Amino acid sequence: MERARPRAPASREEPAAEAAAAPPCGSIPSMRKLLLLLLATAALHAEDVTVVRAARMIDGRSDNVIAPAVVVVRGDRIESAGPNIAVPANAKVIDLGDATLMPGLIDAHVHVLLQGDVTTEDYDKQIFRESLPYRALRASRALRFALQAGFTTMRDLETEGAMYTDVDLKNAVNNGVIPGPRLLVSTRALSVTGGYGPAGYSPEIVYPHGVQIVDGVDEARKAVREQIANGADWIKVYADRSYFLLPDGTLSSIPTFTREELKAIVDEAHRLRHKVASHAMAFPGIENSIVAGVDSIEHGLSITDEQLDRMKAQGIFYCPTTIALEHVAPGRAAEGRTIWAALPKFHSDTVRRAARRGVTIVFGTDAGAFEWDAHLQTKEFGYLVRDGLTPMQAIRAATSIAAAALGLEDKVGTIEPKKLADLVAVPGNPLTDITAMEKVSFVMKEGKIFTAGSF
Questions:
Q1: d(CA 143, CA 146)
Q2: Integer Cα distance of 11 and 15 in angstroms
Q3: Of 54, 129, 23, 116, which is closest to residue 415 (Cα–Cα)?
Q4: How many CB atoms lie within 10 A of CB 282?
Q5: What is the spatial distance between Cα 290 and Cα 361, in angstroms, rounded to a whole number?
Q6: How confident is the model at residue 32 (pLDDT cuts 50, 70, 90)?
């Protein structure tokens, strides 16, 4: 068989020919860059562009009102905002007329799994007779109500016996399963044996509690770890209970945790990079909470000036939740808990002094203590103004100040480029009539419109 002949060596001209056939040096990378640029441009134009106009705007950053107001939203983000903003070609334009545009509202204290607990019977009925799936369905309705009222972000401060259902609700909102505000959740909350209801039933009966019961430093630390492992964004503690008047007329309470237990909870939460909210009504609970180093005081019915000053120095914010107290106090007093009739007066005085002393006040309603279908959340603005805040301060307490307190200032709380497109509008000017905040007429969350009737 004849063997194949060996290939002749390439001539000197062959490489030159191959070089001539190849693309010019650098052209392939250049083509790739061009292709990427074209794809990026196409993606940019594929995003919906909406322009929202209004007579005026409160942007959450400045104490000055911007007029007129133009906000350009591209996709789920704010692209630009101001009085003289050019309208992009092919943008959808929404003109709200004589309205005030502002950032999406933030309620820093709610209970979406609670549907009113003016009386003991109201509370126990939900804990004992309603299944967790049923309570979750009712909570999804509460989320819809809150979003329609202009709240695009909420901190839910415990499930009242519904275990970790708030984590599922948070995920359902984030995944687009149900509409609602984005949620920060605290799951089960913590108290001690005898410190939280339901109560008064036979000791032979084992029944669920509204919180996770822990006693001792080791149990406290373990519970914090457990709740965080199961999805808690915040840890909630009940620092006192059973309110009463001392002989000198001051309000007091029975503390729940020892200082060592409360310090252990705060230390463990902070070690795991989570913050602690403390339900603390009167001096003993508030004092223990400040000493332990909590991050927020919830309700705070009677706080001394010295305690307020320490809260300010330590950066502990105050969430008064006045609307809930005003709503539940008469019913609880009528039920036989007469101390509740005196509590609103103490509370109003505390809020006024906190405002004067420069304590950070964050908007919160304790919605769930009142029925969600009563639609009372936005009435909190009026109470804050009644108790010493200016209308602008009350609005900022529910926007930029709340966002910073909750660690969300890089995402929400102000109207500025790159922030999530959370916008609400109210008719007229809430700086001259704070009750305008109760008439939210436009809601946008992450670039999608959720005004009543649209979802």
A1: 5
A2: 8
A3: 54
A4: 29
A5: 16
A6: low
Inter-residue contact 224 to 188 (CB < 8 Å): no
| pLDDT of 451 | 74
Name the β-bridge partners of 71.
52, 81
Question: What SS3 state is found at 354?
Answer: helix
The reported pTM is 0.90
| 63 and 184 assigned to the same domain | no
Q: What is the DSSP letter of 242?
A: E
Question: No. of H helices and E strands in the chain?
Answer: 14, 20
3-state secondary structure of 272: coil
The range of the structural domain enclosing residue 447 comes to: 48-103+413-455
The region that residue 103 occupies, defined by phi over 0 for left and psi between -120 and 50 for alpha, beta otherwise, is beta
**Domain identity same for 285 and 196:** yes
Whether residue 348 has pLDDT greater than 80: yes
Over the chain, what is the mean pLDDT? 92
pLDDT of 72-124, one tens digit each? 999 999 999 999 999 999 999 999 999 999 999 999 999 999 999 999 999 99
pLDDT of 22 > 80? The answer is no
The contacts of residue 195 (CB under 8 Å, 6+ apart) are 211, 213, 238, 241, 256
Closest by alpha carbon to 259, among 292, 237, 234? 292
Same domain flag for 244 and 146: yes
CA atoms within 13 A on the CB side of 33: 5
CB atoms within 10 A of CB 44: 11
pLDDT at 4: 41
Task: Assess whether 275 and 389 both reside in one domain.
Answer: yes
Query: Strands 251-255 and 240-245, how do they pair?
Result: antiparallel
